[in-house]
Amino acid sequence: MAALGSQAALADLIASLTRKVADFPEPGVQFKDLTPLFADRAALAAVTDALAGMVSGADLVAGIDSRGFLVGAAVATRLGTGVLAIRKSGKLPPPVLSESYTREYGEACIEIPADGLNLRDRSVFLVDDVLATGGTLAAAARLMERAGARVTGAGVVVELGSLGGRAAVAPLPVHSLSRV
Ligand code: AMP
């Protein structure tokens, strides 16, 4: 992670540029808003470099709606791969492939186009901003596999360690840039 020297320095930078909002979107959840991090030129470059350095053997980066799009596109550009937006339900015209799941706050559903996108035999690296319970990443991995792709791993900027997301996603290897 070139510019910042060490993993600990990057984790500190991420923490310092994360807005922590108590009881959002519901009581008991501390929301990690990475908007200040993404708006910082050096921090965005460092996060992009660090995540890109964790990818091996993938020819497609898939970012999860919506903050995963930002990091996913940046990482794909850095690696020279394609990028895939995994959308929340209702955003894509039919036909779609869908996966429903439970996440830290509430139920959700993610989708990709069922037509015009041949993922068979593609190797995909998943990217999101935050790993909480792991429901989102696990659903994204199932979606990719149903589409015929091979998921090589996943990368997140912040891992909420106490919520057990890493175990929920196992055996998929998850790389996180900071663990809180
Ligand atoms: P989960 O499926 O529980 O791992 O939740 C991860 C997804 O929900 C990611 O797409 C995050 O953007 C979002 N998310 C869950 N918990 C939080 C949180 N505390 N702060 C920010 N985003 C969160």
CA-based gyration radius: 15 Å
- How is the largest sheet built, in terms of strand order? 5-6-4-3-7-8-9
Strand fraction: 25-35%
Give the averaged pLDDT, no decimals.
95
What composes the largest sheet? 7 strands, mixed
Question: Cα distance, first to last residue?
Answer: 20 Å
Low-confidence stretches are none
Helical fraction equals 25-40%
Helix/strand order: HEEHHEHEEEEHEHE
Please count the beta strands (DSSP E, at least 2 residues each): 9
Q: Which hetero compounds are present in the coordinates?
A: adenosine monophosphate
Coarse shape: globular
Number of continuous helical runs: 6
* Computed structural class: alpha/beta
Question: Can you walk through the features of this model?
Answer:
- The mean pLDDT is 95.
- The chain has a 7-stranded mixed β-sheet with strand order 5-6-4-3-7-8-9, with helices on both faces. Strands 1-2 form a two-stranded antiparallel sheet.
- Helix 4 (67-79) links the parallel strand 3 (60-64) and strand 4 (82-88).
- It is 31% helix and 33% strand.
- Helix 3 packs across helix 4 (67-79).
- The chain has helices at residues 7-16, 35-38, 41-52, 67-79, 135-146, 165-169; strands spanning 19-22, 30-33, 60-64, 82-88, 96-102, 107-113, 123-131, 150-159, 174-179.
- It has 180 residues and is of the alpha/beta class.
